[in-house]
Amino acid sequence: MLLTITNRGKDAGDIGYLLHKNPARPQTFELSYGKAHVFYPVAEEEVCTAALLLDLNPVELVRDRKGKGEPAGLFDYVNDRPYVASSFLSTAISRVFGTALSGRCDKRPELVDMELDLTAAITMLPCHRGAEMVEGLFAPLGYKVKCEAFPLDERFPEWGDSHYFNVEISGKKRLTDLLGHLFVLIPALDSAKHYWVNAEEIEKLLRHGEGWLEGHPMKEYIAFRYLNKRRGLYNEALSRLAEEEEGEEEDAGGEGASGSGKSTFAKKHFLPTEVISSDFCRALVSDDENSLEATGPAFELVHEIARKRLSFGKLAAIDATNVQSDARKPLIALASAAKRDYGEFDVNAITSGQNANLGALLENYTIRAEAMGRYIDAWREYCWPVDGLDGIRLAPFHLLATEGAVHADKDHVWHMETIARYAATGDGLVMATPYIAVDTADEGSVGAGVAWWEELTGRGGEGMVVKPFEFVARGARGIIQPAVKCRGPEYLRIIYGPEYLLPENLARLKKRSLGKKQSLALKEFSLGIEALERFCRREPFYRVHECVFGVLAMESEPVDPRL
Predict the structure, then answer these.
(1) What are the beta bridge partners of residue 275?
(2) What is the Cα–Cα distance from 1 to 368, expressed in whole angstroms?
């Protein structure tokens, strides 16, 4: 997934100061679920683009889930998560651009509140409600919104567009505001958060939504989706949003005339180190706490002390006489900046990014793009228009039972020939399955079988099922495995994911143990035959169901579904 942020105008490269990322030095950051690469594809005087490229490892994500005791299904291995903008991207923004998100820039603090001509481009943003929803989320914040849609399959335009969009938003914004909007709105469009949503997410939502979320026409939708549709958290968030909207200025501090009890209240309810008194600051700069000439320098000192305390996560209670509305605004802004910063992970303070090799990155993503193209070609072999049963084809390779008889006593050639005879007289729903008999003691026969499989898979076929000649075959250790699937390398992309042939993924796949899967398969095969025989003998259904439920119980065992 890719996010780019472009700044246009004089000294466009100043965005590097705000992001705390040097345009001349690409960087890579290790995350728990993959890597984040930061680089600048464009770095000119009047145009500067920063790119955040997130490289997820889907296998690691599944392994993390399994470590928490959650069974993994096939969808956990093959899905769109590594390729679309999701909650992973939002978390990466917080981790890699945490300082900019919080509104801090120590080297150039004047840049923080400067509105820049910014354009953010989000690649493959999922939105099931279409481009209108994307525009409804970003346009009220003052952005111009462009959405590029993609067809589900260009070969079948009647299928319509997919729910993925390349989105571009542009406007005059502070960078911290732009990042805050992305941090909240991208997860609001994600139906499968990768993290546990609890009460802490309310704090993040309110912190990064401060100043805009309470007035957004879709605030209810945003809060509900950001909090993963958890009704209790949603209700609490809306309640707190309403409170902030009603009492924005009142929350910044108390006001009153001299002698009204503010200082007494402060001494009673706050620690001495938490109270910053304007009178005391006047005395510090002029030796006279009543000096009106020292008011300006005194309040500069008040603001500086408050800023320093808040940077350490400490409470700052301002004790000042009759602070007017205009004078409170800088204090509110100061508190808001600290609130945005509180609790955020500052990657620059904790870990520094390693130098990134852009040539290696380009080579890696060229290989991955080719793998994705092959993946699309693989599943396209199994997509075609249908109308009811018209267009549906069944290609069986077992005739399990007919009236009063289970055919486990017949060899597999009998099964294939019988099915072919039935298919020849049918309506086209059932088709004969191609097969070849191989004598494993004859090298020529084995070679013909290999060539047959290579030709089949080479033209897009799924593969073959290898079975012993007899339906039930026994060896020295009992029943032999009744069937083994030998799929082609391209079809396996549908099972293992587009990138399964990458060396690191292939090495991991080869280490898997098949013992448990084989044991379960043999037991399920035996129970299946027993269930069929009981059914054909017209035994009571509960006797048939005993076997069926046994199979279902074994299917619930935590075994890699891709085996």
Answers:
(1) 317
(2) 12
The full set of domain ranges for the chain reads 2-196, 256-322, 512-563
> What's at 22, amino acid-wise?
N
pLDDT at residue number 351: 34
Q: Are 90 and 225 in contact (CB under 8 A)?
A: no
The separation between the first and the last C-alpha atoms of the chain, rounded to the nearest angstrom, is 29
CATH of region 256-322, choose from 3.40.50.1000, 3.80.30.20, 3.40.50.300, 1.10.10.10 = 3.40.50.300
The DSSP annotation for 189-220 comes to T-SS-SS---HHHHHHHHHHTTTTGGG-TTHH
Q: What is the pLDDT of residue 250?
A: 39
Provide the token pair at 421: 């005879």
Contact 104, 112 (CB under 8 A): yes
Residue 176 · residue 103 · CB < 8 Å: yes
- pLDDT score for 382: 82
Q: Among positive and negative, which fits the CA dihedral 4, 10, 15, 21? A: positive
Is residue 100 within 8 Å of 180, Cβ to Cβ? no
Is the pLDDT assigned to residue 415 strictly greater than 90? yes
Continuous segment of H or E residues that includes residue 172 = strand 161-173
Which pLDDT band holds residue 252 (cuts at 50, 70, 90)? very low
Contact of 347 with 92, CB cutoff 8 Å: no
- Supply the Cα-derived Rg of the chain in whole angstroms: 33
Give which of 65, 18, 57, 66 is closest to 38, Cα–Cα: 18
State both tokens at 33.
């679920």
Q: Spell 239-254 as b/e; 16+ CB within 10 A means b.
A: ebbeebeeeeeeebbe
Coil vs helix vs strand at 276: strand
| C-alpha span between 530 and 216 (Å, rounded) | 63
> Percent of the chain scored above 70 by pLDDT?
84
pLDDT of 478 above 90: no
CA 322 to chain centre: 50
Place of tokens 């354009």: 119
Q: Quickly list H helices, 9-126.
A: 15-19, 58-67, 74-77, 87-96, 98-101
pLDDT at 185 over 90: yes
From CA 42, how far away is CA 178, in angstroms rounded? Answer: 19
